[in-house]
């Protein structure tokens, strides 16, 4: 059952990513990107990387994609005004270059996929998903062994936010 679900999420992710690439409507591309992010998070869950899956949902879906959708919806003023529609239509000018890069990456990934020995990996993969959770181990490590780098990165991110707020303010102190 799990390999069927895995293949279903792969198909969902690839199809929605293709819609992102070939859609001329920015809003449709953003909603397809939502499906792509959910598909990738589901793939992370199926391979046992639950912390990365939750991070994917919180950061990309919860932050970046919502910001992108609000940006598209709030700035939808210069769109196509034919027949009362107000759509943002993008033009794809570098399709050949994008296709060549995608084909190169696909061939590299296919080569790595062909050379990998999946017999050893597949035997214990699906049995160990239910019994192993990475979230607790990462939390314990962040609060014990890596507490100083964790706190320093928090202070650095706070300084970045304060600097961004200062640079974007109209009144400089």
Structural account:
Helix 2 runs antiparallel to helix 3 (50-74). With 173 residues, this protein is an all-alpha fold. It contains seven helices and no strands. It has helices spanning 2-22, 26-46, 50-74, 95-115, 118-128, 134-143, 147-168.
Shape: extended
- Which stretches of 5+ consecutive residues score pLDDT under 50? none
Distance between the termini: 61 Å
Biggest sheet features: none
Write the H/E string, N to C: HHHHHHH
Beta strand count:
0
Radius of gyration: 21 Å
Proportion of residues in β-strands = under 5%
Number of helices: 7
User: What is the average of the pLDDT values?
Assistant: 80
Category from helices, strands and their pairing:
mainly alpha
Helix content range: over 70%
Membrane topology: Multi-pass membrane protein
Keywords: Cell membrane, Membrane, NAD, Oxidoreductase, Quinone, Transmembrane, Transmembrane helix
Organism: Arcicella lustrica
Main location: membrane
Briefly, what is this?
The chain has 173 residues and is mainly alpha-helical. It has helices at 2-22, 26-46, 50-74, 95-115, 118-128, 134-143, 147-168.
């Amino acid at each position: 059952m799990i390999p069927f679900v895995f293949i279903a999420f792969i198909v969902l992710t690839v199809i929605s990513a293709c819609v992102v690439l070939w859609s001329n409507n920015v809003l449709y591309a953003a909603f397809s990107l939502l499906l792509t992010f959910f598909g990738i998070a589901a793939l992370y869950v199926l391979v046992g990387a639950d912390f990365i899956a939750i991070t994917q949902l919180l950061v990309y879906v919860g932050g970046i994609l919502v910001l992108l959708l609000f940006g598209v919806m709030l700035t939808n003023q210069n769109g196509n005004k034919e027949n009362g529609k107000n759509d943002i239509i993008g033009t794809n000018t570098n399709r050949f270059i994008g296709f060549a890069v995608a084909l190169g990456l696909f061939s590299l990934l296919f080569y790595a996929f062909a050379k990998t020995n999946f017999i050893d990996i597949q035997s214990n993969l699906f049995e160990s998903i239910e019994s192993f959770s990475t979230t607790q181990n990462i939390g314990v490590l962040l609060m014990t062994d890596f507490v100083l780098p964790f706190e320093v990165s928090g202070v650095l991110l706070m300084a970045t936010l304060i600097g961004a707020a200062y640079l974007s303010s109209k009144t400089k102190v």
